[in-house]
Write a structure and sequence with these properties.
alpha+beta, 5-stranded mixed sheet, 3-stranded antiparallel sheet, 13 helices, 17% strand
Length: 460
């Protein structure tokens, strides 16, 4: 359904037609008055139950006089789910495809367009309700409130038959349960490109099965174990911020995950829903967090490639990474060809610097962002379309999830190395021990739980 209404700029009175594709979500919008360039923004609030639409406006007001159907007006297409035409002049009776109908052209297939868009909505549909229930569990974990957490988690996971855990009796059980709930019940994976979370899990599994480097991995995991909670707390603040602006990103996520983002002529089409200030704030903070924790990627590459977490690909010691004052220089220690580096290869440092240190501005008419660096009398500029910058924000979100996956696996290594074993494995071991008659594990044999310790120092 298309909703047509007219507004006037508060400063110059220019009439603008808001041509909105009504869907499942409220439609925030940001535009510049085509005459005086005043920033006009607001939201179309969709009342699904009463089938009503409320317009909230800043720097403009609803047109009070009757609209002349023979005149032409600046038209701003709006949609929360689909790319839209940038502001253009059209007559009220001139035919044009709606954003919904036009969307299929970007994908080359109507069914593909529908499925990609619907999947991209899952995070917005599930995350808020699930997050409000799940986040307090993590707070209990970080605050060492195991007596409260364990029974609540047991009750929660009993609602999901696909979660193999049934008992939560220690920190490792709790982390495994929380990790599975986060990945499987929040719609998180709908933001990531197909197969991405599976790729992250496969890469992270390289941490544990490599017995040759187990001692180095345990050493590194135990050295940073005191940082795990703080790393996760800061990441969750970013995930929360991302979720609050996610309704601005749905068209980009859908196109990105279908591999069709480059099919859009970004000079003609864009996303009028997006607020550049909110996006740039998330991009800068998420990039900072990634650089703060890129040392995890560096250390794991060192272990799997050189069996020494202190030996970097560039020949320098890992200890130097921790002393680097200019964070982006940490990327010099990341070898793109090493196994843990792949998900981080698209980091865009120039954009991060432009946001935090250079001048930047957006023209909402063209949806082009200009980053300007004035240094020693020389001016350098970099520009990109708003859709491409939104894509970078989603990429940063994806890298956050990747590093959290690595932290989760390192938590497991640390727990196991300290003799904490998942309850289901411990129960299985106890059952096997009861049934054994001829087989005996020697006190100095490796413990079968996989901790890497001798049996006498682990499960004896």
């Amino acid at each position: 359904m298309i909703d047509n209404r007219f507004i006037n700029c508060n400063l110059c009175g220019t009439t603008i037609n808001l041509r909105a594709q009504i869907g499942y979500f409220d439609i925030p919008f940001n535009l510049h008055c085509p005459t005086c360039l005043t920033h006009i923004y607001g939201k179309l609030v969709i009342d699904q139950e009463n089938i009503g639409i409320k317009l909230k406006l800043e720097n403009a007001h609803s047109k009070n006089t009757e609209t002349n159907s023979k005149e032409k007006y600046y038209s701003a297409e709006l949609s929360a789910e689909y790319p839209t035409k940038k502001m253009y002049i059209r007559g009220l009776n001139e035919y044009d495809l709606s954003p919904f109908l036009r969307n299929s052209d970007f994908y080359g297939d109507g069914q593909k367009a529908l499925e990609a868009t619907q999947k991209s909505m899952q995070f917005a549909q599930y995350f808020e309700s699930r997050w409000k229930k799940l986040k307090p569990f993590f707070d209990l974990l970080w605050n060492n409130q195991s007596a409260l957490l364990y029974p609540k988690l047991e009750s929660e996971i009993s609602n999901y038959g696909f979660i193999s855990l049934s008992k939560v009796t220690n920190e490792l059980d709790a982390n495994m349960a929380l990790h599975q709930l986060l990945i499987t019940t929040t719609g998180l994976t709908s933001v990531l490109q197909p197969g991405t979370i599976e790729d992250y899990i496969e890469i992270s599994k390289l941490i544990i099965p490599n017995k040759e480097s187990l001692e180095e991995t345990q050493k590194f995991a135990n050295n940073i174990s005191s940082e795990f909670n703080n790393i996760e707390k800061k990441a969750f603040k970013l995930i929360d911020a991302f979720s609050k602006m996610y309704d601005q990103l749905i068209p980009v996520v859908a196109l990105r995950n279908a591999g069709c983002l480059n099919n859009v002529d970004k000079d003609q089409y864009g996303i009028m829903t997006t607020n550049f200030e909110e996006l740039s704030d998330f991009y800068a903070k998420s990039y900072e967090w990634i650089l703060d924790n890129i040392n995890v990627v560096i250390a794991l590459n060192n272990i799997i490639s050189r069996n020494d977490y202190n030996s970097c690909a560039n020949g320098k010691p890992y200890d130097e990474v921790l002393k680097i004052g200019t964070k982006y220089k940490k990327l010099e220690y990341v070898d793109d060809l090493e196994p843990f580096s792949t998900p981080t290869n698209n980091l865009k440092n120039r954009v991060r610097n432009a946001i935090q240190h250079f001048d930047n501005e957006i023209d909402y008419m063209s949806q082009k962002i200009i980053f300007t660096d004035n240094y020693r009398g020389k001016t350098k500029q970099e520009s990109m379309h708003l859709m491409d910058f939104a894509d970078l924000c989603v990429e940063n979100f994806s890298i956050i999830i990747y590093i959290l996956e690595l932290i989760y696996q390192l938590r497991r290594v640390s727990y196991l190395s300290n003799g904490i074993i998942p309850s289901f494995i411990l129960k299985d071991m106890q059952n096997k021990h009861k049934n054994k008659t001829n087989v005996k594990i020697g006190r100095n044999d490796p413990c079968s739980c996989g901790s890497g310790k001798k049996y006498k120092k682990c499960c004896l």
